[in-house]
Amino acid sequence: MQEHLLVPLDGSEQARDALEYARERFPDAELTLLSVVDPADAIVSEPITGAYESPAGTAGAGTEMLDELETTAAERVEAAASEARAAGHDATAAVVVGHPSREIVAFAEDNDCDHIVMGSHGRSGVSRVLLGSVAESVMRRAHAPVTVVR
């Protein structure tokens, strides 16, 4: 039976390295490349203009930003899947919206992934505490083995 690998991609060099690792280490595996769009990124990207109401003309701006982030993520992950298919791999692309670590774990479970291969930004100290570690959270919560590439 062919192994099914989940490779989360966030556009970083570390995620790209994880994809290369998965392609080299598991040449016969089915690859699902996943991009998780965090809704908080759309909120953070919007300017803070008022505490209680949106200025005229900006209602829905967060939704528009989220749509843009989803489109960008879909293009990026589909390009990576196309590249993997061109190299002879069985690869599909997927995009979901939500908290990255939760969505990665849920996607792996819902899609019967045998293994998760992901990149780590290698943060430590205060930046790790403040920004969190998606890879660490996935390792703690996933039912499938997780390989972290740094």
UniProtKB/TrEMBL annotation:
Signal sequence annotation: none
Superkingdom of the source species: Archaea
Family: Belongs to the universal stress protein A family.
Protein name per its UniProtKB record: Universal stress protein
InterPro entries: Rossmann-like_a/b/a_fold (IPR014729), Universal_stress_UspA (IPR006015), UspA (IPR006016)
Domain UspA: residue ranges: 3-150
